[in-house]
Structure formats: structure tokens, C-alpha cells
Amino acid sequence: MPESFLKIKGARTHNLQHIDVDIPLHKLVVFTGPSGSGKSSLAIDTIFAESQRRFLDSFSGYARQFLDLMEKPDVDHISGLSPSICVDQSGVHAGPRSTVGTLTDVYGFLRLLYSQTGHRRSMTTGKRLYKSSVQEIVDAIIALPKEYNSSSIKLIILAPIAKMESTNLAVHLDYLRKEGFVRVRLNNKIQQLDENIIYPKNKSFNLDLVVDRLIIKAETHNAEKVKNRLTDSVELALKMAENEMMVHLPDTTQDLHFAAKYIDSHNAKSYAEMTPSLFSFNSPYGACETCGGLGIVASSGGKCKTCKGFRLKQDALSVTIAGLSIADCVQLSLDELQNWLLFLLKGSPSSAGFKSKSLPELFSFKEINPLEDDYSVREKNIASPIIKEICARLDALIKVGIPYLSLDRPIQSVSGGEARRIRLASQLSADLTGVLYVLDEPSIGLHQRDMENLMETIFLLVKKGNSVFIVEHDPETIMAADYVLELGPGAGIKGGKLTFAGNVKQLLKAECVTAHYLSGKKNISREEIDNKQIPQPGTVTTPSVSKFVTLTNACKHNLKNITIQFPLHRLTVVTGVSGSGKSTLVNKVLLPLITGQATASKAKLKGAGSISKTSIIDQFPIGRSSRSNPATYSGLYASIRNVFASTMDAKIRGYKPSRFSFNARGGRCEICKGEGKIKIDMQMMDDVFVLCEACSGTRFNRDTLQVKFKGKNIAEALDLSIDESATFFRAIPSMSSRLKMLRELGLGYLKLGQPGPTLSGGEAQRLKLATELAKTGKEHTLYLLDEPSVGLHFEDIKRLLFILHKLVQQNNTVLIIEHNLDIIKTADWIIDLGPDSGHKGGNVLAMGNISEIINCQASHTGKWLKKAILN
């Protein structure tokens, strides 16, 4: 493929300083640099945003009328731009019904598989139920003379119409007369419809329609005329009686029952046809009637007793393939499900070793006959293309590093990194070419071992003729790139310049901050933090730890009843491959025990009495609406409102601090209700937010904006960066400590009023940390952080580590879930879980100082850690 370029002239979006650059297409390109330097501004807010704008320009006049209202990227010219797909750090908006299976469409194909090739079972006995086709019923009737050892046999084809109270009998009979039928059987007595019907003396009745009367001879199996008549009669009988019919033998007074649907002979219960909707908990046909398909009862929040939390009607849950119900399938990890499906395709699913967990829980029977569940040749031919489609999608999910997830996992419970990889896998399975993919930190939540698999997938995208632009700090990803762009040299107004553009070989020789860390001129070491010597590989030393918190019998999810020691007043890192049980250990077991919120837990905790407070600093957004921002979250906004309310202008007008809030009436713009933007309903497309014309996005009304402090109104003050506001509000003591901490954590480039949803997970986490650290009385606090390295460049990580180790020096305990090697190698104590993900994880591989981890042969972390130290 001939080399081509994406040419950018005069990019000035956000802090970009008139960047001109030619970026090669059909390559893997990495955008790197310090946090806030302009990487996302160039890759996402300029390149992707312009591609999206041009795409919308091709839409109908209705859609195009809003394009003039949409903000155009501040750039002079872009050429060579292709259709783009962005997988950014925005969360997946999902309700309680959304699962990994529904979001990826894998569950849709699984429903199709069960509806087409599933086997119905009696919910009482567990025996497989069968239904007959018209041809099978006709063949069975023709075989009756032979079965009864007779030369011929008389029979009457009946359609069981009704069994009910006699008050409706006349209506039924009148309907049948109008349809042209001649005879019925009323309470086992055949009567003419044109005669005076003898009504039953009792209140109830059985009404059967006589469809046909004929004689079948032994040699009829070759008589096409009789077979055709019999076929028509059978079809009519099934139609009139909802796929049921009877054959009455007058000579024996016997009724033979046939059905073209599933009927349980044990209790005469009939079952509806199997359709994909039957297996959908979002459809009234399949959703459990008690909980409405949620799996829990809304009033109590407890597990639904009818469906046992499986969301579906028991009618659907009794259907099996190779011994498993659809509820069993969605509980398997993605790699287990793929393995089972591949065995199913080969015709030997029992070799996969999976047994049903749902059937014994839901029904009275404990086991089923596996021979009854074997696929017929016809079923296998039907299942084959469906299974291949499912496996292709599962393969994409596994390659992006989430083989441990299951299809029934609620989307609300997955991490931000997992959600992004789910979205990425969905794009991979689309098999597109000629597309520009823009990925924002795909390494989030991934161990170095798992990054190798992800990079293979990304290389495959490039090989198919796509361009992949990645905003990333991960050194392995940078080194694997075809082309690297570094933005910098600093953040905010100190950044926005193109400090390097070229291949990796050129980068290693360049004089820029990324090159210095990759080449070894700079590094992050424990010596630099507190002059403490890092143990060399092969040596074993014990950190001076006098107190431990000991956790025993941790067995939630995939944890294998493990015992863990967390040292107090030290920095501890919990690491391991993705899905090994880190978050379960810290967030689902340790935290509830420390806070006293654990319920029915076998795990026990000792030694936590000296912890006076627990501070959870996660990556969840600071708010879902644009009303949340760094100023409101950190508490700075209250001081800012007080500052403006204390001005002479405000006092003359009688304005109180609430006047300067965009959340309250009086000072805010009432057209946009203080949002600064107006939501446009685009009908079949995603909603579009456009700038409010009344306030021009300032959020406040004209009178409020006339009040100024040091020459700026409230909107202009909120538009200041944290660095700028430190100077602007220098004389306000109540703001100094908060602003100082925000700057120390490298957030000086953020604007005070920047909407919360636009912050990355890492930025949100550091904002929470800075807000917490600005408070007084921090001693004996346990700080829990989940991947604080997200979004951080090497320089930013070093700055963060100084803060975290300073907390330890102040008699606090810091516990971090992390994959970043620079953070791991500077920890006092390391807990490595594994050896793999899902059910293959949940064990403690090693625990102690860095030497303990490096010397553990089973540890993937140890191998990468040794490599990082030796380099």
C-alpha cells in the first residue's frame, strides 16, 4: 500500500500552539507526552472531531441544520482524513439490564443458537420433550394398521377445540357451523352440527372438532392420494387446535394424541415455540414475570426466588444444549464459553467437562441423560454458522485482555478499562478496512502480559489497511509504534507544542522527556524518592514492618480462600494479570471488612484497629453532568462565590454568594438552566449538545456577569486553569492549600470550571486524591487507590510517588491496585495474584518486597519487573 499522510495545518484546539504536522496513515502512531500537554486535543478533539463533523455533513437536511451550532475544531486545514472510530475514556452508558453479552451482541447470537437447536425438557422430570412435524404425524397414522396387526383401520381426525364452562358452548358451535364444519364430538359423543345438539347436563364440556373420517389400509403407504388427503386433514386439525390433534379409533374407542409442539406427558403442560425472544430478559416473552428480567426483586433488592437470579422464565431455563442451559452459558468465563462451543462444534461437548449449575437449583431433577442432548446432523448444520459467529466475537474479546469476564456480568460493574476494551472488541469484530481508529489509553487496566495480546490485535487492524492512532504512555506501546508524536514540553499553556515527530529509532536519540525515560537517561527509582536502596534481584530483605493487617479466608468470586498480610504505615501494591482477583480482594473483601459493611463473609480481619479512617480514591467520574467540575468537587467554588459576593458591585446590587452559582435561579442563564449548552434531540441519532446562544456558554445571565473581581467576571474566573487561579486568587487563604495540592499532583492545566464528564479516569482520581489530601487530620488513614497511573506520563508518575510516600511518612497506610512497573518497584510491600485470570487466578503467587516477586517463577509480574530493573 503506498504511503500517504494525514496533513494538519494550524491546529489550535484547546492548548495546541498552531501545530503543523504530517502523520503517516496505515501505520501505528502513538501520541505521547506529559499529562495535559495536548495529546488528546490533537488526536481526539481535532482529528477525530473533524472526521465526525464531516461525517455528519453527509446527513439529511434535518441533521445538517445543527452543524453550524456545533463547535468546529480550531484548525486551519486537514487533508487525508478517512472515516474515524474513537474508543475514548468516556464510560459506557448502560442500565441495570445491560450486560457484557447484550452490549457485544454475543448474547443475541446465543439466544438464536438455543432457539434453533436447544432441547426442551420437562421441568418436573428432566426428560427431553419432543414435537412432531406434519410429515412425522402422517407417517405414524399410516403405520397404524401394521402397528395393530390389521389389514385396515377406521379412524377419525379430531381437533381438541375447547374444555370449559357450557355458557360459551353455543358460541363455539355457531362459529364452527359458519366455518363449514359438519360434525363435532361433544363429551365423547359425535353429533351433527345441523341437528339439535344435545347439551351436556353438567356445567363443563369437552369439545372436539371432527376434521375427517377415513379408512387406512395396510398398503396405503404407497397411495399418494390418501397421503395427500391425510396431510391436509392433519394440517387443518393442528391449525384449529393450536398445534394439537387426536386420532380416534372407533373400533378400540382409543384416542391417540399428537402435537406439533412440546407437551409434557407427565402433567399435560404445553410449551410455546422456541424463539430468540423466549431467551431474552428484555422481552415480555422471556423475562421472569416476578422480577421483570432484572434477576432481583425491586422492592427488596434481593435475588428473585422464581428465577433464582437468572432473569428468565423457567420455560426458557429448562432448554438445554449439551447439558447446559443458557443461564449456565452466560456464567462461564468468555474463554470457557469459547472452549465449550468449539467442543460442541466437534460433536464432543462432554469432553469440555462443564456441568449445569442452574438446572439443579431451579428444578426438582438433579441430572439429565447426556445422550438425549446429542446434536443430530441437522442440528449441527444449523448450529455451525451461529457458533462460528459467536466464537469470532469471543475471540476478539479474549484478544483485548478480558477472557475472565462472563456474558452475564452487568456493564455497570466493569471497570473503565474493561468497558473500553469491550468497545474495542466490538470494533474489531466489524472487520473494517480503510478506517482511522483513535484509541485513548487502551493499556488501562492491563498487565504487561496482557498488553502483548492487545498489541497483536492492534497490529492486525493496521495489517488490514487501517490507521491506528493511540494516545498512550505505556513504554512497550511506544516502542512498538511505527511513528511517535510527543506533545509538550509541559501541561496547559506550557504545553501544546510538537516536541518530537519521527520513528522510534529517531526518538531514542532525541532530546525530549519521553526519549530520556525510554533511553535510560532518566528513571523512576526508590533512591530518588527517599534514598532507600532497592534490593537487587536474587537478594531477600525484609522491610522494617512492625504491624500488619491480616486477612484470612478470602474466597469471594475467584479468590481461593487466601490469606494476605497488609503492612500498616507502608505503601503496598496489589498486582497481577488482568482478572486475577485484585479488585475483588481490595474492594469486595478487604474494604467491606474494614468499614464494617461486610455481610455473611467467611473472611476475617485482624489488626485493623489502628486505622482511624478509610479514604477510597477511585476512577469513577466526579459527576455525570457538566455541573460537576474541579471547582465544585474540590470545594473551591464556595470560596470563589464568596469572593465575588464580597465585591463592592455585588454588595450594591444585594447579590449573595448563591447569585454566582449556575445551579441556582437568579444568577444563572435560565435558557440553558446553567448548563451552558442546549441538548438537541437528533431522533434516530445520538443527542447533540450545542452552545447556548443566550449566554454564549458562560452559564450566567448578563446581570451576574457584570460583577467583576480583579477585572474578571465569574465565568472568566471559572475559565482559569488551576495554575492561573493560584496567582489570581493568591490573596484568598481558604483556597491556597487546595490549589497547591492540585498543582503538586500535576493538575495545574485543568480549568476550574471544566465539566466533570470530560475528565479522564486518571484525572478524576487525582482530583479526588488532591481534595482528600487538602483536608486536615490525615494521620492513621488508609488510602485505597485503583490504578493511579492512568493518564500519567513518566514525569507525572514520579510526582505522584513523592506525594504517596509522603503520606506514608505521615503515619498513613497506602494500598494501591496497579500494573505500572515504576509504581510497583518503588513499593514497600507487593502482593502478586495469579497465576492467570478468572478461575485460573485468585491465588497468592508471592508477597513481600521486590526480591520476593522477582524470584517467584510463576509470577508474570516478576518477569517484567526483573526486566524493568535490569534495564
As laid out across the biggest beta sheet, the strand order is 5-14-15-3-16-17
> Between the first and last Cα atoms, what is the distance in angstroms?
36 Å
Number of strands: 28
Poorly predicted sequence stretches spanning 5 or more consecutive residues: 532-543
Form type: elongated
The amount of helix comes to 25-40%
Largest sheet: 6 strands, mixed
CA-based gyration radius: 35 Å
By secondary-structure content and strand pairing, the structural class works out as alpha/beta
- Number of helical segments with 4 or more residues: 32
Rounded mean pLDDT score: 88
What share of residues are in beta strands?
15-25%
Task: Please characterize this protein's 3D structure.
This protein is an alpha/beta fold and about 850 residues long. The chain contains 32 helices and 28 strands. The strands form 7 sheets. Strands 5-14-15-3-16-17 form a 6-stranded mixed beta sheet, with helices on both faces. α11 packs antiparallel against α13 and α26 packs antiparallel against α27 (about 735-745). The longest helix is centred in the middle third of the chain and has 23 residues, at about 375-400.
